[in-house]
Amino acid sequence: MVMRNLTMISLFFLLGPWFWAQEVPNDLLSADFHKGRRQEVRKAMPPNSVAVFFAAAVRNRANDVDYVYHQDPDFYYLTGYREPNALLLLFSEMQKDKDGGQYNEVLYVQKRDERAEQWNGKRLGMEGVKGQLGFERAFNAEEFLNSDIDFSKFGNVMFFDFKNDFRDTKGPADKFDLIRAFKEKTNYPTDYDATKQQLYSMIKATELENSANVAQTLGRYLNYYQELRSDTLLVDFVEAKDDRSRTEIREKVALQLQSNNLNSAKLEEIMNTLREIKTQEELVLLKKAVEISAVGQIEVMKAMHPNMSEMEIQGVHEFVYKKYGAEYEGYPSIVGSGNNGCILHYIENNRPKVGNDLVLMDLGAEYHGYTADVTRTIPANGKFSKEQKQIYDIVYRAQEAGIKASVVGASFQAPGEAASEVVAQGLVQLGIIGSPGEARKYFPHGTSHYLGLDVHDKGTYQPFKENTVITVEPGIYIPEGSDCDKKWWGIAVRIEDDILITKNGPVNLSEMAPRTTEAIEAVMKESSPLDHFKLPSLD
Ligand code: GLY
Ligand code: MN
Ligand code: MN
């Protein structure tokens, strides 16, 4: 018996981490899902093209501590791989290797390394991605550095702009090394400017009848990004007086684009189109993230009292997320009480007591990659004051109008237009503004964005399609010192729900979290397990 145990133990040490199977959640996206997505990318690729995707870089926080790693959402969508230092190649047609083997995709991953895994966690390695993620062809990333892949034979080498968002670390094949190798292999011009390429591609793709509009939009863009004004083709297009001149510039732009086979525009378009529409498998995870976040809001409503700090409130939400196994928050949590709620992306969350103010809580659990984005605004003492309720009810009605407008075929702007009208009328009625045109002062942001792997997810901004998920999130923010009666100062309200667009109309995925003032006040009267959670005073 002892001997057998000893044999088992020594076997364990010999095989070490190579042997033990780590328990992981059993509801991750399936290998088939990722495979299907890769197939969809291939279908949308131009003939004779290759698409190159890089995993997100590791980012250093300080000294030997890195930021918590998070995979690039496109990379995750296409592979399920959640480690850094990796590269995916997709080919529009089958390729042949020297031995006659055929393939249309290759994944390069970080090499297994017993010592590194002891310190920083298990790696899947080539065998793991073959076995668990279903890749037929996988190599260690170092092999890409010396691979003889001939990028010049492709009509299009598609990739995302690198944005200089990485740096060289000690590893032999980190993102820096992989990008350097990619640039060498593709004869990447030293002055390559991805933004310019994207704008050129947009000009090239523009129909003549739409070119004056596009020129106008581009003009606004150039005003914002002054450095682009040194490009004569872009400036000429904006300043062109007629269709003939615009056509001439389009021809010149097309020639420029042909000067090499690098294409940093097309993948954006492909991924925007794919990721906008969620598959049923994605919706299961997205709904779960939203429900977890809604439960967080409910538990906070029960636990809330005026002596709580903003940070403590944030902690309660995030504790609920972790309890359900949500790995991350989808974005930094926003908990702003009173005037702090007027800062749209307030993430300091450091006010020691929320007092009798409204507390605006905009948080989202990220569950297996998919993030929620839910906002509730509640009175810390459990009862809306008259003024708080008046503002709240306008935002509520605006949101109802916005949700109602979120239907298949409506323009992406429809929820915003509907909500803005209600907010403007409401503010005029309360005498906070003199005319509807002033409403933007107190409602300065958009009403909707796509939701999915990113909180501001990818999409086409075309009329709504079935199985798209968006937020509807109107708000009114009246900072101290605003040009209106003092009684409104410091009131900030945002209500945000996550809406699935279906052919039968909008479905509110976050409806579990109470939204009307009456429902919120009722839940706030309920007791909370945290009522009895007392920690020792450390003063
Ligand atoms: N939480 C960021 C947003 O609502 O868009
Ligand atoms: Mn949002
Ligand atoms: Mn939000």
Describe this structure as you would to a colleague.
The chain is an alpha+beta fold and 539 residues long. The chain folds into 3 domains: 27-186, Creatinase/prolidase N-terminal domain (Creatine Amidinohydrolase, Chain A, domain 1); 194-259, no CATH class; 277-524, Creatinase/methionine aminopeptidase superfamily (Creatine Amidinohydrolase). The protein contains 17 helices and 19 strands. It has helices spanning 2-15, 31-44, 73-79, 114-120, 125-131, 142-145, 175-186, 194-205, 211-224, 232-239, 243-257, 266-276, 280-303, 310-323, 386-404, 414-429, 517-524, and strands spanning 49-54, 60-62, 65-66, 87-96, 102-109, 138-140, 156-159, 262-263, 328-329, 334-337, 358-363, 365-367, 370-371, 374-379, 468-472, 475-478, 491-494, 497-502, 505-508. A 6-stranded mixed beta sheet has the order 6-5-4-1-7-8, with helices on both faces. Strands 9-12-13 form a 3-stranded antiparallel beta sheet. A 3-stranded antiparallel beta sheet has the order 10-11-14. Helix 13 (280-303) crosses helix 17 (517-524) and helix 15 packs antiparallel against helix 16. The N and C termini lie far apart (56 Å). The relative contact order is 0.09. Bound molecules: glycine (GLY) and manganese (II) ion (2 copies). Residues 331, 362, 373, 449, 455, 473, 496 line the site of glycine. Residues 362, 373, 375, 496 line the site of one manganese (II) ion.
